[in-house]
UniProtKB/TrEMBL annotation:
One of its GO terms (molecular function) is pyridoxal phosphate binding. NCBIfam families: YggS family pyridoxal phosphate-dependent enzyme (TIGR00044). Pfam families: Ala_racemase_N (PF01168). Keywords: Pyridoxal phosphate. The modification N6-(pyridoxal phosphate)lysine is found at residue 39. This is Pyridoxal phosphate homeostasis protein. Pyridoxal 5'-phosphate (PLP)-binding protein, which is involved in PLP homeostasis. Belongs to the pyridoxal phosphate-binding protein YggS/PROSC family. Its cofactor is pyridoxal 5'-phosphate. The keyword Ribonucleoprotein does not apply. InterPro entries: Ala_racemase_N (IPR001608), PLP-binding_barrel (IPR029066), PyrdxlP_homeostasis (IPR011078).
Length: 227
């Protein structure tokens, strides 16, 4: 992991780039929330980011997040945890227990499991629907053609507090049409939050209306390759 001063400097650089991208788009700087993606990095990296004023974090695995975040809450009541990775239904209860936002709702079985977990836990984290804007077979997210119906079902049938959408465009394509598609879909459903843009493309996402950008590598350095 980068040293604590490096994490602080990286955060400052990303915040400056977000402010510039907002200015170019004629948007207020505070209209974009930086989600610092700390997956695979140790708790010390999160602590260093908290010390540098970062409050919103993203993790893609519930179990890993459960090991890092709950014991930081007492000292950092403003901290917010977003679950951003594909979720198995048997992790729904843990996700509802520890998350402030679950960004990866993408199928009826998961929506049902999250709704059930909310009843049991007495907690209602905000939910985003993840859309597979490139219709890639290996990627999580609801397929484009099913997105409208699924967003309606998540809200009306399962009663989830859906406040936004999330996407991860295909790596090998211009991300902007994907960001634009997500924005149009959100507008159709009156959803205010758009989680789109990562280290490589967050400025383009801000130009297309992102309200949250999920940045990992540019803050915490490269992740070890998966085994
Ligand atoms: C890992 C991850 C990110 C961060 O990606 P970087 O390229 O490291 O900034 C963003 N969103 C999701 C869903 C991720 O899994």
């Amino acid at each position: 992991m980068p040293s604590e001063p490096d994490i602080a400097a990286n955060l400052a650089a990303i915040r400056a780039r977000i402010a510039e991208a907002c200015a170019r788009a004629g948007r207020a700087t505070d209209s974009v929330t930086l989600v610092a993606v700390s997956k695979t990095h140790p708790q010390e990296a999160v602590v260093a980011a908290l010390a540098a004023g970062q409050t919103v974090f993203g993790e893609n695995r519930v179990q890993e997040a459960a090991g890092k975040f709950p014991d930081l809450r007492g000292a950092h009541p403003a901290m917010r945890l977003h679950i951003i990775g594909g979720l198995q239904t048997n992790k729904a209860r843990d996700a509802v227990r520890i998350a402030d936002v679950i960004e990866s709702i993408d199928r009826p079985k998961l929506a049902a499991a999250i709704a059930e977990a909310m009843k049991k836990e007495g907690r209602r984290p905000d939910c985003f629907v993840q859309v597979n804007t490139g219709d890639e077979t290996q990627k999580s997210g609801v397929p484009r053609a099913e997105a409208d119906a699924f967003i309606r079902a998540a809200r009306e049938e399962y009663g989830l507090p859906v406040t936004g959408l999330m996407c991860i465009p295909p790596l090998d394509q211009d991300p902007r049409p994907h960001f634009a598609l997500l924005r149009e879909l959100a507008a159709r459903h009156g959803l205010r939050e758009l989680s789109m843009g990562m280290s490589a493309d967050f400025e383009a996402a801000i130009a297309e209306g992102a309200t949250l950008v999920r940045v990992g590598t540019a803050i915490f350095g490269h992740r070890p390759a998966p085994a």
